[in-house]
Amino acid sequence: MHFLIKYKLLWFLALFLPGSVTAESFTCEADLTRYGRPGQTEIKIYQREGGRFIRKSTQKSGSAYMNVVFESDTDIVLMEPIQERKQLYLFITMLNKFSDEYYETYFSVSNGKNPESNLPIWGKCMMHK
Fold first, then answer.
1. Contacts by 64-70 with C-beta closer than 8 Å and gap 24+?
2. Into which CATH architecture does domain 3-14+25-128 fall?
3. Which of 33, 43, 51, 81 has its CB surrounded by the most CB atoms within 10 Å?
């Protein structure tokens, strides 16, 4: 699906999500070539809801809540703890308001044994107020 179509669809859904208050949001895009998917992109929308953000993605259906664990004038760090099969994962997203970039990665004990299997995602963002 073309980037603009995905962007418009996700943005439309974000605007009409029940109970949400849009104070600040980010639309981010990452190139997936490094994951063996040349020409494909992933688009995520991070929409603030008080002290947390809701994350929506073109790659996965549904949404997830991420807690703000650090915030400054230039950066926001979000975290989502995920418990799967007796393993705790921390999904971390860093949003840089100054450079309009984002960075995402998973942390877990098992990833420490094989860090090559956990490539982070980096991309560009647009901030909306």
1. 64/91, 66/91, 66/93
2. Beta Barrel (2.40)
3. 43
